[in-house]
Amino acid sequence: MKRCLVVLTAAFLFLCCAPSSAWAWGCEGHQVVALLAEQNLTPHALAIVTQILRDGPIDPSLSRYCKEGPADPIADASTWADDIRPLRPETAPWHYVDIPLGTSHRDIATFCPLPESCVTQVITDELTLLHSPAIDPQKRAEALRFLIHFVGDVHQPLHATTNNDQGGNCVPVAYFDALPQLRNPVTESYAPNLHGVWDVNILARMTMGKTPEQVASDLEQSFRSKIARWKSGRADVNEWAWESYQLADKKVYGKLPVHVPIEPPQTVKSCADDNHVSARMLKLNEHLVQPYQDVAAKVVQEQIAKAGARLALLLNQLWP
């Protein structure tokens, strides 16, 4: 038992210090979203989803970020969109929508530039592909895997906002005992950072020792009445992104121990841009401990549960 605790503690500290890759929810979070959706699919939708994934399997030679992939095919499909990014760099902007912090209008399309696109538009595009009866089986499976992943992404608050900081990737933070360390002198990126903490560490800390299946079961029980409402509501991807943006504004940034000033919006390619934004944010000495974790954990739990229910909503509407 002691050895198990040591291993878990070591793994947790590694996650705290690992550089963020801007991959929303990490392995565990995306798998939990998929498992929750699966629990709320109609038998007909579940049968079609399973058949589509079987007919268009993932290339076995593909390097998988989540090394110990789950046996469940829908959960396994949930992280594929991250795995193929190095091979298809054009898909990188599909994972988020950059709504500038301090924005007051909801016209999401203005923050979704073409031809790069963004997560809200791509979800709509993948739904259109899945509606098509003549699509190639492999492309159909890829569209489904993108959809599973991107519905999770759009519910991560930092995938729906930016403050010239790449969705919090350029905000170095201390997270409990893990202090920010410079990971890349050229891009001036640090870890832990705000984005990485919301992607992985908050969920990992509150579910340590549990499998994704156990976490999905816990959330299903905790949010049962809300899940019933979310999976029968109106499918509005732009509204979902706006909800995430508001959470980023009020909870992610709004509850930080030290106030982060709103930056005049500009294009940034790395954390060295905007007058060395990460170096300036480092000087704020953000230190996230239990009070912040408590607030963030509630948001993470609800957003993951909401993503699972809404993914089920979309799939049940596709194949009623």
Tell me about this structure.
With 320 residues, the protein is mainly α. The protein has one domain: Orthogonal Bundle (P1 Nuclease), CATH 1.10.575.10. Helices cover 53% and strands 3% of the residues. It contains 13 helices and four strands. A two-stranded parallel sheet has the order 1-4. A two-stranded antiparallel ribbon has the order 2-3. The radius of gyration is 19 Å and the shape is globular.
Compile the SSE list and pairings.
Blueprint: H1 2-17, H2 26-39, H3 43-55, H4 73-77, H5 80-83, H6 119-131, H7 137-154, E1 174-175, E2 181-184, E3 189-191, H8 194-206, H9 212-222, H10 224-230, H11 237-253, H12 273-282, E4 287-288, H13 290-318
Parallel strand pairs: 1-4
Antiparallel strand pairs: 2-3
CATH homology group:
P1 Nuclease
**SSE run:** HHHHHHHEEEHHHHHEH
The name of the CATH topology is P1 Nuclease
- The figure for the number of domains is 1
Tell me the Rg in angstroms. 19 Å
* Form type: globular
Q: What is the overall pLDDT average?
A: 92
Strand content: under 5%
Content-based structural category: mainly alpha
Quantity of strands, as a count: 4
Short description:
This protein is mainly α.
Supply database-style keywords:
320 residues; 53% helix; mainly alpha; 13 helices; globular; P1 Nuclease
